[in-house]
Amino acid sequence: MTLDRAACAPLFASPVLQDVSLEIRPGETIALLGRNGAGKSTLGATLAGLLRLKDGSRSGPAGGFAFQRPETQFTEASVRAELESIAGKGSAHVDTLLSAWRLESVAGQHPFELSQGQKRRLALATLTADARWPFLVLDEPTAGLDAAASDEIATRIAEIAAQGRAVVVITHDMEFALKTCSRGIVLDRSCAVADAPLLDILRDDQLLASAGLVAPELLKLADWTQTAPC
Amino acid sequence: MLSTLHPLPKLVVCLVWLSASIAVFDPRFQAGIIVLAASTLILVERRSPLLVLALMVPFALFGFGFLTTATLFREESDFATRMAAETPFGSPAFSAGMVLFLRAIACGMVSAVFVLTTEPGRFIKALMASWWLSPRIGYALFSALHLVPDLASEAQQIRLARAMKSGRTPRRIPGPVETASLVVPLLAFAIRRANRAAIAMETRGLGAASGRTIVDAPQARAADAIFVVASLAVLAVLFILASGVWRAW
Q: How much is the pTM?
């Protein structure tokens, strides 16, 4: 999937990003970083093919998009029905999905009755079950989750990438980004100011400061252990 | 500039202008109000002329109904026809229709001046602080102010999610079927939000009892008095010029 000099705008609004050019390759894990209002969700929805460009061009297939509030994408009356809407009614694959995503015990419940972690898992399960999407965009996948649930999402992202699908993670959680992604894109001043290996971005203090970001403590600690004299 | 004024004197001034627009059956007076209101928005408030023109469209369509009624169904608009008998448009029926047409736009533009220059939160605070608006209603209005944009955002998210599932890019304007299908999810969203707001108010001890402080309630200043006097003076001058009273002096 490629964006070329794209001007990205939310529905019924003026562009919030200009002149964005990037490419998503199979199996990549990409962190989309930037301060609040930088246009991360807008770019994510544009990458997924959900928003029309105001200028420039987009080529490639559409992607799956996991919304910040997972309830948004649930349309069925039960967890099982939600998965059946993707995998097909009565499909044996549904049971496999329920088991793989640890949702068997809530299969008959309404999606809105699930805990936040279960909702996230269901949203990801529906996205990964659909073979139409060669890449997924996850908007704040750890919002409202405890450490164990975040860790599980990180593991799932690694599994999805290992299957050859690219994953774009929109997040403010730099530790999570460091844990899950190998490439980073930083949005600031209405454009993509950096597109590089994530470690390079997280070590660029000047870039981070200008974009309102802070390097994860874990990386600082790792760098210190390498530079501090024994 | 008008945005910084106290909302209540501004409301009173706008109501006086609206009353004058309704009471004075003269096309020049109505046209004067339209020009003054539009000029205020464009020159003082720096609003786009295109926006101001777009704002006139619904009121013009509404007024056009009066114009056609007055012109085509004269029996129905006898009073207006008699009132407009001496207007400069020749045919009394057409003159009456034109006055009603311009009056609809004038009332719309005066309302637009108030709405576009008044921050809703300040207006509600001013009503609570000065005009004894019940806190029950005031806080409900505050909640609604937050809910409306969130509701619009939620509707867009749901539309995007459904478009993703169906494998198509969402249309800019949803069709009637899509709109109807959004009603239940949005209602559920609004109920959940209302519950959370009610719990938040409860935990903060907000009740209907009197004796409360209102943070940042608008305070009347000298500029408000100057605005009231100046705008009423302009209205009086407009009336004198339009009615031709000055010719008798």
A: 0.74
Distance of CA B13 to the CA centre of its chain: 14
DSSP A122-144: HHHHHHHH-TT-SEEEEESTTTT
Which residue does chain B place closest to A46, by CA atoms? Answer: B169
Domain coverage including residue B151: 135-203
The verdict on B48 and B26 lying in the same domain is: yes
Residue B88, in any domain of the structure: yes
User: Cα separation of B246 and B249, whole Å?
Assistant: 5
pLDDT per residue over B150-197, tens digit each?
Answer: 898 889 889 988 888 888 777 778 888 888 888 988 998 899 888 888
Nearest residue to A122 via CA among A148, A94, A147:
A94
In a domain, B183, yes or no: yes
A48 touching chain B per CB within 8 A: yes
Q: What percent of chain B has pLDDT over 70?
A: 88
B7 occurs within a structural domain: yes
The length of chain A in residues reads 230
Note whether residue B89 is domain-resident.
yes
Domain count across chain B: 2
Spell out which residues of chain A touch residue B163, defining contact as CB-CB under 8 Å.
50
Q: How far is A25 from chain B (nearest CA, A)?
A: 20
What chain B residue is nearest to A76 in terms of C-alpha separation? B185
Quote the ipTM score: 0.83
Separation CA B116–CA A156 (nearest Å): 49
Q: Which of A62, A103, A60, A154 is nearest to B164 (CA)?
A: A62
Q: Which superfamily does CATH assign the domain made up of A2-63+134-227 to? A: P-loop containing nucleotide triphosphate hydrolases (3.40.50.300)
pLDDT exceeds 70 at position B218 = yes
Q: Do B169 and A49 touch (CB under 8 A)?
A: yes
Q: Do A67 and B162 touch (CB under 8 A)?
A: no
Closest of B107, B96, B95, B119 to residue B45, by C-alpha: B119
B169 to chain A, closest Cα gap in Å: 5
